[in-house]
């Protein structure tokens, strides 16, 4: 029953002191607008039989992103989201106004400063901090090689203008990020803590996450509805705990001292980033920081702990006295010791950095902690923040598909794992002990630490300039000539360009500010050579540009010659802003021939997304197709929703096919052409068929093509078999060439996207795709999964987001003439894998290798195999089953029982492969390993058998039909090219000895890729065409 109260004013808003003015128009439902601590909100309320003067004290708030934790990482994420127009809510448990500035991180490396510069934040920090461009390392009072000297001449590791380290205490960095955030009109809400959150799976709005926030000042609980929940709330993260994401790792017995003080010393160059090797206190950190302070750090050994009666006996006086001893023979006088701490060393990493399906993400210390041995903590957290924010923004604005967000964990976790692995080595060496990787070495720890810090790859990674991301949908590699030497996933080097008119120099990274847009940069070279290609290429752009949101891309042209204007130099209207590369430095650094040009697409965070050829065919040919395929895929494919509203399909877009419900009319000048039953595409030019094709509504089996169309690939018939060292199909030779596409069934792709993915792969001449037939979960992830665990009980998901989804993968592969190699579990934590079985059945933290020996675990895995394999045992599209991806004694956690050997995994492989054969006699079976040999005493790690794999022994298992090998050089840094060639040759020899096929299933290196791959592939070709099957050479 509604009634008409007469209300003019009441109090009791949030907080209690905030007045609320209410106007009622005589209806039981009205709009209430008021202002309180979290901003202005409107609510629709229904008045029932309640006291008319009652006001809603604690309304439910709505925000696009609820950010928990306002340290530097949390504040930086919030700042970026505010900058991108995404309305963040920033919550902090502590009262930051009472925080002192002492301690925590104090060094930012060059790549981190570059990222902040592109966000207009670097200058703010530079005004406060201390810059160091060099550093000295001492031993027994003499200057020697080693230590932190990688902090000198930083430009030698990458083309950067930030050839220095920036030092200021973390609280000051945090304050600048918070101030920049507040300048967008938002507030930091202190003394508020998250209590819980839940996903409303039937929410009718775009705010499915319900978060309970406790107001610690007024002792009230506030309800927040949000689209995304970001946990940047430190190593003890409440968000991580609520999300039930394990925090794997351990602490060591080692302890270090860190202090901030004003000091006097006779050490040479004391305002440089210095280090000292001490016989008694490990490697000493000497770091100048803001306000005339110096950060001093040293190892507090077990001997010293015993001397002072444990941690409790370490007073300020003790810390200062031991610091004086640590830097001897130099002298040290303390004028003002403002802060010190003693802390334990350990490394921990979250098993996942996100729960994408539930909209939850972790960043910074919430998902990784480690020592300060190489100053990676805050730098790594800032990289997390920058990687995540633009992806969230594109999704929030409806530009990107939700699957883009999965790339955050994919990209950042692998980088952080390397940070963790490096830190284990560095912190152990600094503490005066030999880490496992250097056990058996006879050199002194000081010499080994010097060797470690001298490694150029380690230096580049530490400074951030060498960090790269793997190939994926936003780091797309191009087959064929790219006309540039830079690889997708690598950092885009910085270089000076020249502005039109004034001739002022401007840095490329300044041009490519991070505004959550992809930057398409056309390196036009010398227009006298490239004008035709530039004209054709840019002439085909308008329909593409018009088909996508304006905030998705920005465009630039760089020429190697200067003149009076862009149009004047190019001889035509340019695309985007024009800059001159007068000394050709930019073209040289990016490896672009000025007579041919190239197109480089930069991600918003400055990493390279793809590099394609600038050619006279415009968007024809493979490079052009890749350009538009990338653009259509950018941010894991730009949303078609914005295109559909125009009722036209953009260039190269889908316009028909089974299951397709979108528009069928192409943009002007483009024609809808049937590619197969599942896919019709807008192609340039005219065709004899109709310009539109209606979407098919029923599945058909005909593969006959209509006029001016491409015939669909034949359906899969017959099962792939082996004959000696060959694969065969229906008695004839079958060539296995293809790609890994593990994600195709697990990223929530539509049937259309699956078909497009397989069509693109098939267009390269591929015959086989390797993919995952597993995804173990313990909750609903929001993306397809195949088995869900409740305690120790697994349930196979046969629904639409389970095996029915994999049915679509098989159908899409079949429609495009592709065979599938399907792995049934994973050695690693991605998509669940072996550790989920062990954790759920045996217990969290139990040894990884129990997967191979525990009877209950083996039984559960066999039950899953029975369900999965039986479903497809008569489907010829499946070429083979792999028992696991890269099985080893150790998994992601690195835990083992200590009893796992090569015999353990060989026995398991024999048992499981025989079990599969008992269910399915049609398909081939392989182990899915990396091809490690078991030759104890070998100098090369992959030959030593230490990971539990004996390649030759496993080849002899009668129920394994073929073998696999991966080539990744595994730390063979001396000469990875020749090492890899020998690795391939050795596997070819094993193939011949066992008379079974071997597939080189994965390969990759991070440096010198072109020359390395040329050698490796030549080795493969030599074995296949020269030594074994010369009749196959064409």
Automatic annotation (TrEMBL):
Keywords: FAD, Flavoprotein, Glycosidase, Hydrolase, Oxidoreductase, Signal. It comes from the Eukaryota. Pfam families: CBM_1 (PF00734), Cellulase (PF00150), FAD_binding_3 (PF01494), Phe_hydrox_dim (PF07976). Residues 690-717 are annotated as: Disordered. One of its GO terms (cellular component) is extracellular region. GO terms for biological process: polysaccharide catabolic process. GO terms for molecular function: cellulose binding; FAD binding; hydrolase activity, hydrolyzing O-glycosyl compounds; oxidoreductase activity, acting on paired donors, with incorporation or reduction of molecular oxygen, NAD(P)H as one donor, and incorporation of one atom of oxygen. This is CBM1 domain-containing protein. It comes from Moniliophthora roreri.
């Amino acid at each position: 029953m509604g009634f008409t109260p007469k209300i003019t004013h009441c109090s009791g808003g949030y907080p209690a002191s905030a007045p609320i003015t209410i106007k009622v128009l005589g209806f039981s439902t009205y709009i209430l607008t008021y202002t309180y601590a979290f901003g202005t909100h409107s609510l629709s309320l229904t008045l029932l039989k309640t006291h008319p003067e009652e006001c809603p004290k604690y309304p439910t708030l709505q925000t696009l992103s609820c950010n928990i934790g306002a340290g530097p990482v949390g504040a930086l994420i919030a700042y970026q989201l505010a900058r991108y127009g995404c309305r963040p809510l920033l919550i902090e448990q502590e009262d930051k106004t009472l925080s002192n500035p002492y301690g925590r991180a104090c060094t930012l490396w060059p790549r981190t400063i570059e990222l902040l510069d592109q966000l207009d934040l670097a200058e703010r920090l530079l005004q406060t901090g201390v810059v160091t461009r060099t550093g000295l390392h001492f031993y027994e009072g003499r200057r020697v090689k080693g230590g932190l000297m990688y902090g000198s001449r930083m430009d030698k590791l990458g083309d950067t203008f930030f050839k220095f380290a920036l030092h200021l205490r973390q609280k000051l960095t945090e304050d600048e990020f918070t101030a920049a955030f507040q300048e967008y009109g938002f507030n930091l809400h202190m003394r508020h803590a998250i209590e819980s959150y839940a996903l409303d799976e039937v929410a009718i709005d775009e705010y499915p996450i319900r978060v309970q926030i406790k107001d610690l000042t007024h002792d009230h609980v506030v309800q927040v509805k949000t689209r995304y929940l970001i946990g940047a709330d430190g190593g003890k993260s409440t968000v991580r705990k609520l999300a039930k994401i394990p925090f794997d790792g351990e602490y060591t017995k080692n302890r270090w001292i860190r202090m901030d003080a004003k000091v006097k010393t006779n050490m040479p160059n004391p305002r440089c980033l210095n280090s000292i090797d001490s016989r008694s206190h490990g490697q000493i950190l000497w770091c100048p920081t803001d306000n005339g302070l110096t950060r001093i750090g040293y190892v507090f050994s077990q001997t010293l702990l015993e001397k002072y009666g444990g941690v409790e006996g370490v007073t300020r006086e003790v810390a200062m006295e031991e610091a004086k001893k640590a830097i001897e023979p130099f002298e040290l006088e303390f004028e003002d010791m403002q802060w010190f701490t003693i802390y334990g060393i350990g490394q921990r990493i979250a098993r996942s950095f996100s729960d994408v399906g539930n909209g939850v993400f972790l960043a910074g210390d919430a998902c990784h902690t480690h020592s300060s041995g190489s100053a990676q903590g805050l730098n790594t957290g800032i990289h997390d923040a920058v990687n995540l924010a633009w992806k969230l923004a594109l999704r929030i604005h409806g530009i990107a598909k939700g699957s883009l967000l999965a790339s955050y964990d994919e990209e950042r976790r692998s980088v952080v794992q390397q940070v963790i692995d490096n830190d284990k080595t560095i912190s152990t060496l600094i503490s005066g002990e030999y880490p496992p990787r250097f056990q058996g070495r006879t050199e002194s720890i000081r010499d080994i630490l010097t060797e470690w810090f001298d490694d150029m790859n380690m230096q580049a990674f530490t400074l951030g300039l060498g960090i790269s991301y793997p190939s994926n949908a936003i780091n797309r590699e191009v087959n064929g000539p790219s006309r540039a030497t830079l690889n997708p996933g690598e950092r885009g080097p910085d270089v000076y360009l020249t502005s039109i008119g004034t001739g002022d120099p401007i840095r490329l990274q300044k041009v490519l500010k991070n505004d959550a847009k992809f930057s398409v940069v056309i390196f036009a070279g010398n227009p006298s050579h490239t004008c035709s290609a530039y004209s054709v290429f840019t002439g085909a752009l308008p329909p593409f540009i018009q088909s996508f949101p304006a905030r998705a891309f920005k465009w630039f042209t760089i020429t190697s010659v200067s003149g009076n204007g862009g149009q004047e130099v190019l001889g035509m209207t340019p695309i985007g802003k024009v800059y001159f590369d007068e000394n050709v430095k930019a073209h040289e650094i990016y490896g672009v021939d000025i007579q041919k040009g190239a197109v480089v697409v930069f991600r918003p965070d400055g990493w390279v997304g793809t590099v394609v050829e600038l050619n006279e065919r415009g968007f024809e040919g493979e490079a052009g197709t890749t350009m538009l395929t990338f653009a259509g895929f950018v941010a894991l494919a730009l949303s078609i929703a914005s295109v559909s509203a125009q009722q036209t399909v953009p260039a190269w877009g889908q316009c028909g096919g089974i299951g397709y419900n979108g528009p069928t009319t192409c943009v002007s000048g483009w024609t809808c052409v049937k590619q197969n039953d599942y896919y019709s595409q807008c192609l340039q030019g005219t065709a004899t068929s109709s310009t539109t094709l209606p979407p098919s509504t029923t599945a058909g089996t005909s593969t006959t093509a209509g006029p001016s169309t491409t015939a669909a690939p034949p359906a899969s018939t017959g099962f792939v078999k082996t004959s000696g060292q060959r694969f065969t199909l229906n008695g004839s030779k079958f060539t296995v060439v293809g790609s890994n596409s593990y994600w195709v069934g697990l990223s929530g792709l539509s049937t259309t996207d699956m078909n497009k993915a397989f069509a693109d792969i098939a267009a390269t001449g591929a015959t086989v795709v390797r993919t995952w037939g597993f995804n173990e979960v313990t909750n609903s992830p929001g993306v397809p999964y195949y088995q869900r665990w409740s305690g120790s009980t697994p349930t196979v998901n046969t629904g639409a987001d389970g095996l029915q989804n994999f049915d679509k993968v098989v159908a899409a592969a079949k429609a495009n003439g592709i065979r599938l190699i399907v792995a049934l579990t994973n050695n690693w934590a991605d998509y669940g894998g072996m550790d989920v079985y062990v954790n759920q059945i045996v217990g969290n933290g139990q040894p990884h290798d129990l997967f191979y020996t525990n009877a209950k675990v083996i039984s559960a895995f066999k039950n899953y195999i029975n369900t999965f394999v039986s479903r497809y045992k008569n489907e010829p599209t499946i070429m083979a089953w792999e028992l696991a991806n890269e099985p080893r004694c150790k998994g992601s956690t690195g835990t083992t029982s200590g009893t796992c050997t090569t015999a353990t995994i060989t026995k398991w492989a024999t048992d499981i492969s025989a079990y599969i054969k008992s269910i399915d006699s049609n398909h081939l079976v392989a182990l899915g390993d990396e091809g490690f040999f078991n030759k104890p005493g070998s100098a090369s790690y992959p030959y030593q058998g230490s990971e539990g794999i004996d390649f030759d022994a496993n080849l002899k298992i009668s129920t394994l039909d073929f073998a696999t090998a991966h080539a990744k050089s595994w730390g063979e840094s001396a000469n990875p090219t020749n090492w890899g060639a020998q690795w391939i040759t050795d596997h070819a020899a094993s193939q011949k000895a066992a008379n079974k096929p071997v597939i080189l299933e994965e390969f990759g290196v991070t440096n010198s890729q072109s020359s390395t791959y040329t050698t490796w592939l030549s080795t493969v070709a030599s074995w296949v065409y020269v030594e074994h099957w010369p009749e196959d050479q064409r």
